[in-house]
């Protein structure tokens, strides 16, 4: 089988013909995972959740999809569990806010199986061992909460591991 002429495309569960799907992108971070991320980021708490809803916000201040976290300014200690159907603009926004000195720290939870993609190769890989950005690969496959979902006794884990990108915070 040859890949010549093959055009890469997002998995249909991530983005359908009409764009992002809320039923896939609404991955609510469970508190135990948030606590682990807070510890890895070296912050006691987050001030702002930039990709939230009223039902899943992980900080006292939050920006919803309707408010557009990519268009609003970020301040303080930022938590971001972005929609996985379109990661690159969130990483770009984080770099912009960090380089402008607008934030104390940013912790961004991402799937760990996208390291071959252009956004990773351009915006993460060159920096992940330097002083500006830390990358923590989390063990196992973590469950997320979803609207109307009841945690099963077994199974129902995503088909990918996770990593946490951290700008600032305590190393």
Structural overview:
The chain is α/β, with parallel strands linked by helices and 171 residues long. The protein has 4 helices and 8 strands. The strands form 2 sheets. A 6-stranded mixed beta sheet has the order 4-3-5-6-8-7, sandwiched between helices. Strands 1-2 form a two-stranded antiparallel ribbon. Helix 3 links the parallel strand 5 (76-80) and strand 6 (103-111).
Question: Could you give a short description of this structure?
Answer:
This protein is of the alpha/beta class and 171 residues long. The protein contains four helices and eight strands.
**Structural shape:** globular
Into which percent range does the helicity of residues fall? 10-25%
Taking pLDDT < 50 over at least 5 consecutive residues as the criterion, the unreliable ranges are: 1-21
Q: Tell me the number of helical segments per DSSP (H or I, 4 or more residues long).
A: 4
Task: Specify the structural class.
Answer: alpha/beta
Strand order of the largest sheet: 4-3-5-6-8-7
Please give the largest β-sheet. Answer: 6 strands, mixed
Encode the helix/strand succession as letters.
Answer: EEHHEEEHEHEE
**Mean pLDDT figure:** 82
Percent of residues in beta strands: 15-25%
Whole-Å distance between the termini?
45 Å
**What is the gyration radius calculated from CA atoms?**
16 Å
> How many β strands by DSSP?
8
């Amino acid at each position: 089988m040859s890949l010549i002429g093959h055009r890469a495309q997002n998995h249909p569960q991530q983005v359908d013909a009409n764009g992002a799907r809320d039923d896939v992108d609404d991955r609510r971070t469970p508190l135990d995972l948030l606590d682990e991320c807070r510890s890895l980021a070296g912050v006691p708490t987050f001030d702002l959740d930039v990709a939230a809803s009223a039902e899943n916000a992980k900080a006292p201040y939050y920006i919803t999809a309707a408010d557009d976290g990519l268009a609003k300014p970020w301040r303080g200690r930022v938590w971001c569990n972005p929609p996985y159907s379109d990661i690159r603009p969130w990483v770009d926004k984080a770099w912009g806010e960090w380089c402008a000195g607008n934030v104390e720290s940013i912790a961004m939870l991402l799937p760990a199986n996208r390291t071959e993609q252009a956004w990773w190769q351009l915006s993460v890989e060159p920096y992940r061992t330097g002083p500006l950005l830390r990358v923590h690969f989390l063990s196992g496959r973590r469950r997320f909460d979803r609207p109307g979902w009841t945690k099963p006794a077994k199974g129902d884990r995503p088909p990918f591991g996770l990593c946490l990108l951290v700008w600032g915070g305590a190393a």
